[in-house]
Amino acid sequence: IKKIGVLTSGGDAPGMNAAVRGVVRAALSEGVEVYGVYDGYQGLHQNRIEKLNRQSVSDVINKGGTFLGSARFPEFRDEKVRQQAIENLKIHGIDALVVIGGDGSYMGAKKLTEMGYPCIGLPGTIDNDVAGTDYTIGYLTALNTVIDAIDRLRDTSSSHQRISIVEVMGRHCGDLTLMSAIAGGCEYIITPETGLNKENLLAKVKEGIYKGKKHAIIAITELMTDVNELAKYIEDETGRETRATVLGHIQRGGQPTAFDRILASRMGAYAVDLLLEGHGGRCVGIQNEKLVHHDIIDAIENMKRPVRTDLYKLADKLF
Ligand code: F6P
Predict the structure, then answer these.
(1) Keywords on this record (predicted)?
(2) How far is CA 40 from the centre of its chain?
(3) Among 6, 50, 70, 271, which is least packed, fewest CB within 10 Å?
């Protein structure tokens, strides 16, 4: 391996820059050249690829977002588009590619791997929904952002004796909602793992009111329901003022925490190690505090993320 490429893809996540820096600096220290691909698979298809040096990744470790840019590019499902992408990599003499992104980005890396082009996937998403890792890069930073927002909501809910519904990102994974609800002391947690049963939720809210709760916070994962309609339903049924807040893309920005910077740096350097050891078609994770790698095809097709039933039980006890 003499030259590797690196790209960030899908929704950005705090720590992606630190991961790119990890790849670049580790590769250069091993005498391997690094090429940055702009705007994910879209830039790869359009041959927007540039050689990076040490200075290319100066002053980025502390920055949110991704300086390489990112994009959603569903066209990459088309084999001809991927073939063009591989040709572009070959024009630059790039032997392997490091892809930093979520499960959609892993799918692209898996497809390239199946076409014989070696890729290493690094989990970069705030959703924490990637198999084969306990933590994705950006997740814990986003968790702090969500907790900060919930703390603020608590102030105003309490002052006005209102019920607040807070919608948290995570796509089809409830981790960000569950953890932020525990850390933020939310009364009710609705995630894809628990499902939403409006009548049950209402019964619990009424029980809380009966027990003397003056205000309450309901944390719910995005894409489950229209939270404004849910707020109206609860307000109509309980007679308590209810407001919904969609945190949205605020959750994706901001300076990465120390944990995410360190995780991203370790994973970036580890990806280079794997490539130098001759591995391809792998995805990197951290499990029980150790860096690990799995077959990327296996991770996508067969591996499931464990549901944190222990923490759901804890949440139940604490409310
Ligand atoms: O995958 C990260 C994520 O932020 C999800 O939580 C969310 O559903 C999605 O991206 C939003 O994507 P976009 O920024 O493309 O609207």
Answers:
(1) Allosteric enzyme, ATP-binding, Cytoplasm, Glycolysis, Kinase, Magnesium, Metal-binding, Nucleotide-binding, Transferase
(2) 16
(3) 50
